[in-house]
Structure formats: C-alpha cells, structure tokens
Design goal:
The chain contains 4 helices and 7 strands; from the N terminus they run βααβββαβαββ. The protein has 172 residues and is α+β, with helices and mostly antiparallel strands. The chain has a single domain, classed as Gcn5-related N-acetyltransferase (GNAT) (Aminopeptidase, 3-Layer(aba) Sandwich).
C-alpha cells in the first residue's frame, strides 16, 4: 500500500475476541470524544461487542491484521436483500493508511456475493473523517436521515451547528 502497513483482511476467529473488544472500546471512546459525553457506551463499553456477536442479522465479521496485530474490524448485517456495514473500526494509530478502505472493499464484495441489492453504513453525524472515507469508498447515496430531539431539560451535550439538508438547518 505504500503506507508502511501489510494488511490482511480475514474472517473473524474466536482468538480475535480480545482485540475486537478493545477496538469496540476505541470506537466508543471516539464517540465520547466527538460528542464530549463520557457516558456514551456506559461503564463497560467493550461488553457491547459480546452482545453484537449474538445479533441474528450478523452475516459476518472481518478483521484487518497488520502482521500479528488486529488493527481494524468491520461487520456485515444482512436482512433480506439489504446489507449494512456495522461497525467499521480502525485503531487510531492505523487510520488514514488504507485499512478502512480495504475493510469496506471486502464487505462490499461480501454483500454482493450474498445477493444484497443495497449496502448502507450509518456513521454518527459528527464523524467527518469517517463520512469522508465512506463517501470516497462510493457511499454517495442518502437513504434515511435519523432526526431527533434532545428531550433532557438541561442537556449537558453541546450540539454543533452547520448541516443543511433540503433548506433545513440542523444541529449535530
């Protein structure tokens, strides 16, 4: 790749549970940082990975390996002919080096092989780095937009300004 990494993408194995739980924890921390909210993911965010592995719509999980180290993972959810990538995580020290792109390419191939008509991905709105990566990888169609209201009377979260869609201004 020319990025100093020798990446292999392979199917998840039981021996990957610890590094993948750690990656899940990194993903949660990234969301905590993006939203300045240490409560995201609860007290043991890595434990959510264990529940993720039990999902009935989980078609497969792949890891990116650099030498002996697992540096990324991506899962494919499949319901009927619609597939979704959830999650895609790359270790912070390996980002911007092609790892995410390789994982996305593999999951696009897997979704195609399994007969999916559509492949979606749902990054959090504030993760500009991920959105840019996904767009560059071909995700240039919008299907759904999650809209919500913060009902907490005294929310500690500060919402950013700056997204306009169909002439409507949104905070994110």
């Amino acid at each position: 790749m020319g990025h100093g990494l020798e990446i292999t993408i392979r199917e998840y194995q039981e021996c990957d549970v610890v590094p993948c739980r750690n990656l899940w924890g990194e993903l949660t921390q990234r969301h905590r940082d993006i939203y300045s909210d240490p409560s995201i993911g609860g007290d043991d965010p890595s434990s959510h990975f264990d529940r993720y592995l039990l999902r009935s719509d989980l078609a497969g999980l792949w890891v990116a390996q650099d030498g002996p180290a697992v540096v990324g993972m991506a899962g494919l959810l499949l319901v009927g002919r619609e597939a979704e990538i959830e999650p895609v995580v790359v270790r912070a020290s390996s980002r911007s080096r092609g790892v995410g792109t390789q994982l996305l390419q593999r999951l696009k191939m897997e979704a195609t092989t399994r007969g999916a008509d559509f492949l979606s991905i749902r990054p959090v709105a504030r993760n500009a780095e991920a959105i840019t990566c996904f767009h560059r990888a071909g995700f240039d169609l919008l299907g759904h937009v999650d809209m919500f209201i913060d009902l907490r009377e005294h929310s500690e979260r500060e919402w950013a300004q700056g997204i306009t869609l169909h002439d409507c201004r949104f905070r994110f």
